[in-house]
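Retro notes - structure team

What went well: the batch runner handled both jobs without manual restarts.
What didn't: labels got mixed up in the shared folder, which is why I'm recording both outputs here explicitly, each with its sequence directly above its tokens.

Job 1
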Amino acid sequence: MVTKTYAFTYASQGVRVNSINPAIINTPIFETSLSMNPEQVDSLGPSLPIGRVGRPEEIAATVAFLSSKGAGFITGELLLVDGGASLTRWGNQGNLFK
């Protein structure tokens, strides 16, 4: 709701506001927060519909697109970059990390 509120508030000033919602992205921060090594994080991939965890450069590419002129008419969107997690019951992450 915050994304849409800010997008609506600032659209008339030419400011676009969007959010990116990733699922599992194999980064040092993710590894540290779960006390996992890179291989353990990668082992979570099969639980996602796409069959692998995301890479930081995929999030960076999403940011680059949303910052480009090609996305100039996009505002107030919540973009899921989640390997299809939102398409399934995967959202119940409690079982994923056991």
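Job 2
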Amino acid sequence: MNPNTDKDALRQLREARKPWIDRAKGSIKTQAALIKAIRAQLEGGAKSVPQIAAAAGLETAQVLLYVAGLRKYGAVAEGPKDGDYYTYTLVDNKNA
């Protein structure tokens, strides 16, 4: 195989897939920003999903999905109920 031919083939492949790669990068940036906003709200103490959503200016359903994911992977912990909703707090992963 010719190294120049391989480089050209890879360059063509990157160009052909550029729209998908750019869309994936955009999704990753959006997700990171949402998680950062949720974590910022929880740094002030325990909050329920509606409280987080209102304070961060996000949709409640979207916050619920992200909080559920953060809980599943141990980044937040479920606390006691505040009215009809559970509260959530950040987990200190520095000692883990």
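One thing worth noting from job 2: The chain is about 65% helix and 15% strand.
We'll revisit the folder naming next retro.
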